Amino acid sequence: MEPRFAVLTLGVDDLERACRFYHDGLGFASKGIVGVEFENGEVAFFEMKNGVTLYSRKNLGWDANVTPRVRSSVESSIGHNVKDTSEVD
């Protein structure tokens, strides 16, 4: 297995504000917030070599099946993509 990650997801309190910071403030390329038509689906992707994703703390907790508590710097997830399921084991 090649040691790498495909995406880093950050949990944020205010998705719109965080999206403006990364896009307008830091200049990271993004199409903005997408997935608003899905419950727990709104997310912002930023185009980088290894992508960065912003997800609300509430929805990141839902996706990880945990209840968000007091804000913490560890509210994130790291994704690693593989070519097929045989590479998972």
Major beta sheet summary: 5 strands, mixed
- Strand residues, percent: 25-35%
User: CATH fold name, please?
Assistant: 2,3-Dihydroxybiphenyl 1,2-Dioxygenase, domain 1
Q: What is the total tally of β strands?
A: 5
Give a brief description:
This protein has a 5-stranded mixed beta sheet. The protein has one domain (7-79): Roll (2,3-Dihydroxybiphenyl 1,2-Dioxygenase, domain 1).
Explain what the structure shows.
There is one protein chain. With 89 residues, the protein is α+β, with helices and mostly antiparallel strands. It has a single domain, classed as 2,3-Dihydroxybiphenyl 1,2-Dioxygenase, domain 1, CATH 3.10.180.10. The chain is 21% helix and 28% strand. The protein has two helices and five strands, in the order βαβββαβ. Strand 2 and strand 3 form a beta hairpin. The radius of gyration is 14 Å and the shape is globular. The mean pLDDT is 80.
